[in-house]
Design brief:
Layout (H helix, E strand, L loop, with lengths): L17 E4 L3 H10 L5 E3 L11 H16 L3 E10 L19 H11 L7 E11 L5 E12 L15 E3 L11 H7 L1 H15 L4
Parallel strand pairs: 1-2, 1-3
Antiparallel strand pairs: 3-4, 4-5, 5-6
The structure holds inosine 5'-triphosphate.
Length: 203
């Protein structure tokens, strides 16, 4: 359930903006960049992400913020699915290492994959849009790639230093944010949201 309020803006949301239910500042930055033309504001309420799927967790996060403010909100649940690890870390990507710094996450992943020859993986992002009426829409984006053997680059967050998208030579952490924000799982999901909002404006 919703427990801890982490964003100081929580008490004074601007009703004209699209609320994003996240506690992750990197996501807010990427979402704001990708959703150019739509004003966005992060409002994170920590929820227990105990869903079985990205969809369930994204809906749960968005619903917590909708309950708090009585206005529509979106949430992002995302993660890395690695083929040779039977889909792990998957929906548990944020909590795969302790503390979950990018360094720790990447190191643990590389260690677990030490003997993996096939290094295919994909990032998945599900954006949930929840209305005060309870109506829910979800939008999914996927970015296929490979896990390289050493961390490379300083941009981005999470597993970016070890993920190289298909057809490109650089990891997400080596490319300018503008490039990642054109091709990422988050960009794909948000493009579907944007297309939906163009036909179904919130107000
Ligand atoms: P919120 O739940 O508050 O939004 P979170 O970071 O806990 O923040 P998730 O539960 O969706 O978000 O966990 C997603 C994790 O997957 C994230 O913490 C990263 O470790 C990883 N991840 C997701 N998208 C990523 C990306 O674009 N680049 C690198 N790692 C990513």
């Amino acid at each position: 359930m919703a427990s801890k309020i982490r964003n100081p803006n929580l008490r004074n949301p601007n009703n004209e903006e699209l609320l994003i239910a996240t506690t992750n500042q990197h996501k807010i930055k990427e979402i704001a960049h990708i959703l150019k033309g739509i004003r966005v504001m992060g409002n994170g309420i920590r929820v227990n992400e105990d869903g079985r799927t990205f969809e369930e967790n994204a809906i749960k996060k968005a619903k917590a913020v909708v309950r708090k403010f009585g206005q529509s909100a979106i949430a992002d649940d995302s993660g890395l699915i690695v083929n040779c690890l039977q889909g792990k870390p998957g929906i548990k990507s944020a909590r795969f290492a302790t503390p979950p710094t990018p360094e720790n996450l990447c190191r643990k992943l590389l260690k677990k994959m030490a003997s993996c020859k096939a290094r295919g993986a994909k990032f998945v992002c599900v954006i949930a849009l929840v209305y005060p009426s309870g109506k829910v829409r979800t939008f999914k984006g996927v970015c296929h790639g490979r896990i390289i053997k050493k961390m490379r680059g300083k941009e981005g967050f999470g597993y970016d230093p070890v993920f190289r998208p298909c057809g490109l030579k650089k990891t997400f952490a080596e490319m300018p944010p503008a490039i990642k924000n054109r091709i990422s799982h988050r960009a794909m999901a948000l493009k579907k949201l944007k297309d939906y909002l163009a036909v179904n404006p919130i107000r």
